[in-house]
Each structure stands twice: as C-alpha cells, then as structure tokens.
Amino acid sequence: MRDFGESLLVYRPPIDTRSVKEVIGQKSNGNPEKALNFLTPHQKWGIHSTYSDNLLMLTLGRGGPVVWLSEADAKELGIADNDWIEVFNSNGALTARAVVSQRVPAGMTMMYHAQERIVNLPGSEITQQRGGIHNSVTRITPKPTHMIGGYAHLAYGFNYYGTVGSNRDEFVVVRKMKNIDWLDGEGNDQVQESVNENSFTSRHGAESR
C-alpha cells in the first residue's frame, strides 16, 4: 500500500470510465448536453425503494424519481426545476424530474439510491423504454490496491463483502427531455390484445361445450 502512496488519505482524480465521450451528442434531441459527475447517496426515508414508494411518502415529494442539479448547470442546460430530464452514458439511461438547488455544487449531479422506477416515469428518448434507476448508468470499477494481501478472497462478487468498487467516479450526460412519452399506447395495446384473446378463448370454449 505504501508503494502506491495509499498509507494516508490523499486526493485522487476521478477515473476516466470512458462512458461519456462516445455517446455525448450522438443522439441529440436538440437540447444542450453536458457531462457531469454522478453521485448516488443513500436516502434518509427509505431502504432501497421500500417505504419511499408508499402513497404518504410520494405525496411529500415529487411523486417519482428525481435528480438534483446545481443552479449553474441547470441554467446552462436550459433546465427549470421540475422539468423532465434524461441522464445517460454508454452504460444505460434513466429519466427523472430535475431538482434545481443551490446546495448542489456545479459540475455534479445527484440521484438518491434506489428510487422507484415504475411510478410516474415516462419512457427514455434514447432507449424507448420505461424505467431506469441510478444503477442504469453506473458500473463497478474495483480498486486494485484493495485486493492486496488476499483481501479479495472474502468476496463472492465485486462490491459485495469484499473489494469496494469506485462507483462514485461515474460521469453522465444530462439534458432536458424534448418529448415526454408515457408509452401508454404500447402498454394499452398489449393489455387489450391479451383481453381480446382471453375473451375469444372463453367464448369459444363455452360454445364448444
């Protein structure tokens, strides 16, 4: 550890995970895009999505997933508080409402851990699918010095009871959504098709008997 300068706490620049450069500007919707550092702290009022997705808790907040932005970055991107935004990189994409706050420093964005991904959530302009949470855009990058001395043998998988991944070094592209698509037509069509098939089967069975 000493050979790598890890005996004391020191500043290390963020890891270049190469997850932004290949996607920024590639699927533009006409709105400005910016790469920001993405943090995923644990929330205060829930354990994963448990408790935070009940009706009482939903009425105390925005009623769905949110991502926090600084006032400076929001102004640059043309994003107002409560606008729908899209957060993405080469790992995946998510949609959420923007919380614009002076408490967030410029250059970073924040999404509390494990928010409900199916409540009050439109489809992504990039993936054309509903859903997406903080894990959609993050990936685990184990720190090699944490595996010195056989420590890694404690883990059956990275980041679980073993080597801690540096999943706070992730960067994402943030932009305001242009078209808010709730994917209602597709879902309704699938449900209706299923209902029609079941109705036909029931009638056909009754007529046969």
Automatic annotation (TrEMBL):
Residues 188-209 are annotated as: Disordered. GO terms for cellular component: membrane; oxidoreductase complex. Residues 189-202 have a biased composition (Polar residues). GO terms for molecular function: 4 iron, 4 sulfur cluster binding; metal ion binding; molybdopterin cofactor binding; oxidoreductase activity. Coiled coil: none annotated. Its cofactor is Mo-bis(molybdopterin guanine dinucleotide); [4Fe-4S] cluster. GO terms for biological process: cellular respiration. Keywords: 4Fe-4S, Iron, Iron-sulfur, Metal-binding, Molybdenum, Oxidoreductase. Its EC number is 1.7.99.4. Residues 36-152 form the Molybdopterin dinucleotide-binding domain. This is Respiratory nitrate reductase 1 subunit alpha. It comes from Escherichia coli.
